[in-house]
Structure formats: structure tokens, C-alpha cells
Amino acid sequence: xxxxxxxxxxxxxxxxxxxxxxxxxxxxxxxxxxxxxxxxxxxxxxxxxxxxxxxxxxxxxxxxxxxxxxxxxxxxxxxxxxxxxxxxxxxxxxxxxxxxxxxxxxxxxxxxxxxxxxxxxxxxxxxxxxxxxxxxxxxxxxxxxxxxxxxxxxxxxxxxxxxxxxxxxxxxxxxxxxxxxxxxxxxxxxxxxxxxxxxxxxxxxxxxxxxxxxxxxxxxxxxxxxxxxxxxxxxxxxxxxxxxxxxxxxxxxxxxxxxxxxxxxxxxxxxxxxxxxxxxxx
Length: 282
Description:
Blueprint: E1 7-9, H1 27-35, H2 54-67, H3 69-72, H4 95-104, H5 120-133, H6 145-153, E2 163-164, E3 167-168, H7 178-181, H8 184-192, E4 204-209, E5 214-222, E6 226-230, E7 236-240, E8 244-250, H9 264-276
Antiparallel strand pairs: 1-7, 2-3, 4-5, 4-8, 5-6, 6-7
């Protein structure tokens, strides 16, 4: 039975949620590398990637999110069409091989090449970013992962919104393998300044109904005539846009900074735990 508009949809158990995915990258910086011609060696002329600095990796991430994120996920962990890239590559074992796949795609598959206007420099930067997703080098962290798990499940209240291995909330990103997608510095930034880089998937919407009451939650789906969101209690609401007074998109994170909430040592422990959440080596 279809629920009446602007009424909560109560769901028993853990109902899988499919949401709109909008991959929006910082277009200006990425466009510079996609359209600016430069004297960059072609893959045929070199087997080594000439763009491997930390800045190159960051720029490669921006291009990846714009060009590849729709299929492979914003952080390379897999999407509806593309496989997870954080656990190695099935069709390339060298940087030159990766360059060729990113540039040309894979025949007889859904994998198409990058924008034809992309410079070789931007493709090499994407290769550097992809390699960073598979960097399994040991990192010496000051925190303790076991203590961090206790912070995650206790004082940090992280499970209210985040799920790990099927346990936890659904109002924030799934973190089972976050250590494969984020380095310790990125984890620290996400904890201390969560509003700095909020993916559109995690923006919220505030709806004011005709009677003046307000419902706020994550936007799960939207079209010309209707809007669906999930509130703080994880109840689903469906609205007809013609029967609401207004709605407002909120582009900040629902997550609060841990600054002043957790001690410095607790933050270190939490980062150690989050960074430990990645697939075990076989």
C-alpha cells in the first residue's frame, strides 16, 4: 500500500535504502587539468608516472570524482556499475597499463575512457590517485585501535549514524572499509571539520508543511513533484511538493566536530580504529 503524501513510512527491520547519487566535484580545479594543454609524456613514451606528488594525488582525486565517481563511487569503493578499486586492479599491473585503461577504457565492457579532452597530465594524476587507494604501507599511528573502537561505540556516539559490518545507523557513510578510502590526515579532518567536504549524498532537507510544522532529514529521493527524506529516527517521509509550504537544502554535515567533545588521545585512538577498518591482506 502506498503511504499518503507527507506521512512517515515506517519500515520494520533494516530496509535497504537506494538514494539519489550526485557526484559533484570541484569543477574549476579539475577543469584546469582536463582542458589545459601541457608538455606531458604520453604513456607510449614512458612506463613511469611523472606525476606522483601529494598534490598530484589530490588533483587526481578531483578528476576521478568528476569523471569516474558515478560508476566507481566517490572514493573508488565501487558503485552501481563499476567495481571496487581499493583492493587492487584486475586488468592492469603497471602505471602504463592503468593509464591506458583510464584513457581508452576496456573493450566489450561498460568501462569507457575518460573525457577525450582530458590531458595526459590529468590521466597520470588519476593513476596516482588510484595507486594511493591501494597503498598498504604500514603507518605508525599514536593511537590504539582497540581503545578507539570503544570510543566509536561509546563516548563518540558514532554508531548512531554510521554502520560497521552491518551494525549501526544509516544516516552517515558506511565505514566498514573506510581505512581503504581515507588516510589518517583525512580521517582527522573529517572528525574535526566535518563541514569542510560534504558529499551531496549527505546533504539534508528541511521541509515546512502547510500547517507550519517542520520535518528535517537526509534527502533520499526527489523528482519534479515529490520529495522523500529520512529523519533522525530513520523514519521515511514522503511529500508532494504541491502540498508543502517550502523546503530548504542544507549543505552542511549533520555530524558535529569532535573538537572539545573527545580528548586528543581519544581522537588519536578513534583515528587508529577507523584506519584499521580495511580488507585484510590475503
